[in-house]
Amino acid sequence: MRGEPDAFEQVTPVERPAPAPRPAWSGDRTDWERAVEKLQILRELDRGYTTFGARTHRYLVRPKATTGQLAAIEKKLGVELPPGLRAFYRNIGDGGAGPDHGLFAAAELEPRRPGTAYPGIAALRALGARTDAQPPEPTYADLSPSRLTGIVTILSSGCSLYSGVVCTGDVGRIVHWDDDRIVETDDTLAAWYERWLDDEIARFELVLRMRDEGATIDAMVMAMKRLLSSGRSPAADTSRARELVEAKLRGLSPEEAG
């Protein structure tokens, strides 16, 4: 039986699989109908506002922006708003309910040189002081967000975490950043927004079903852990799954949580 290699035996390193090629940017989305329906579902499930940021926006949107208001903001920014963001402001509401603490109102958008084209993550990685030290993930760049262009900031997640949408370049693409890292996504605003709703609804419905079946908290935690591990989120540890289960239970029955 073969044991451990001896001190002089060469061990072939395990190579990381090459990342799958990313699709070409296909453009923005302006269809918000499904998201509006799902927002109502989540609002009814989370009566205790336990989803992160929900106490800020309470799943409410502001009155719709007018065409004139948006035109004035675009003139001030020097660029047209991405179609998906413009459609939200015009047809859904002028900011409010959304991922984390919700979307900024149109007048609160923070420009990051929106008239200069967003260069893409490969170019941003090349701008790093040490390109050989860049993260292995091809959609990440260790770089100050001061180098970002072509973007307006649309929300804050707190702790110096922000999200923006590309206005010039890959129009409609969502980009996230903090003080020293930039992350490019293949999401449009509508796709990202709808996935946030899908993920939260799935978590609430899991806990609701298992609660009604009389399941124990521990059983809910294991089911939540599997749900998180099989989705787009990284695999969650048990403490994170338990935290979510307890929050969802409070959200479903705030009167029992006291």
UniProtKB/TrEMBL annotation:
Organism, as annotated: Nannocystis pusilla
Region annotation Disordered: where it falls in the sequence: 1-29
InterPro entries: Knr4/Smi1-like_dom, Knr4/Smi1-like_sf
Stretches assigned to the Knr4/Smi1-like domain: 64-199
UniProt xrefs under Pfam families: SMI1_KNR4
Name by which UniProt lists this protein: SMI1/KNR4 family protein
